[in-house]
Amino acid sequence: MLGFPLGVLFANGFEWVAHKYVLHGVPKHGQPRYSPFPKNMRSHWAHHKEVRLASFHDHAYEEGIKNWRTRNEVASLLVLTGATTLVAPVAPFFTLGTYYGAARYFYVHRKAHLDPEWGRQHVPWHYDHHMNKSQDANWCVTRPWFDYLMGTRVMASSAWAESNPLGWSLPGFLEKPLNRWSRRLFPSVYAMSQEEGIHG
């Protein structure tokens, strides 16, 4: 049973890595960004342009799989879950966790960009990814876990940000000590939030 949360955690880490290095590509001095999957990178930057111009909305999700960008996203998620299926015989719960992570990714990403106000309220880390001054931060979509771990969570406004690093609604008696612990463990996130996290 421990495999399921490990699969969800793995999916969140994979979101971070794929978003940063595949979908955005690695900047190279004097050259275009490099991605091992350039079609995915083109699709993602087209998504960024649409979202930036339309106040976080993306019409591609209204068109469904008729739109090449939506098809590309769905196909990528199916390839990834197909890869984790290979370990199902020895780690079935881990595999189910990755399935859940992929399904949640598509659901959250789609809903956020069809309903921008919902997105700003429920996934403020992803709203910040698109609408912040720098779009090269806030790599997670479903939960902000790896952005905290890797020091890449940049908040535009503490008033709009998630109330704790888990990105879950928690009672105050749990949230307050969690946030104190988080500030001690991830000071760079909070420093960056104060210095750089400004919508522009």
Main attributes?
200 residues, 10 helices, disordered C terminus
Describe the structure.
By secondary structure, the chain is mostly helical. The chain has helices spanning about 5-25, 40-55, 60-65, 70-85, 90-115, 115-120, 125-130, 145-150, 170-185, 185-195, and strands spanning about 25-30, 30-35. The chain has one domain (about 5-195). The chain has ten helices and two strands. A hairpin with a 2-residue loop joins β1 and β2. α1 packs across α5, α5 crosses α6 (about 115-120) and α6 (about 115-120) packs across α7. Mean pLDDT is about 90; it is low at about 195-200.
Blueprint of the fold:
Layout: H1 3-23, E1 26-28, E2 31-34, H2 38-53, H3 60-63, H4 68-85, H5 92-114, H6 116-122, H7 124-131, H8 145-150, H9 172-185, H10 187-196
Antiparallel strand pairs: 1-2
Brief summary of the model shown:
This protein has 10 helices and 2 strands. With 200 residues, the protein is mainly α. The radius of gyration is 17 Å and the shape is globular.
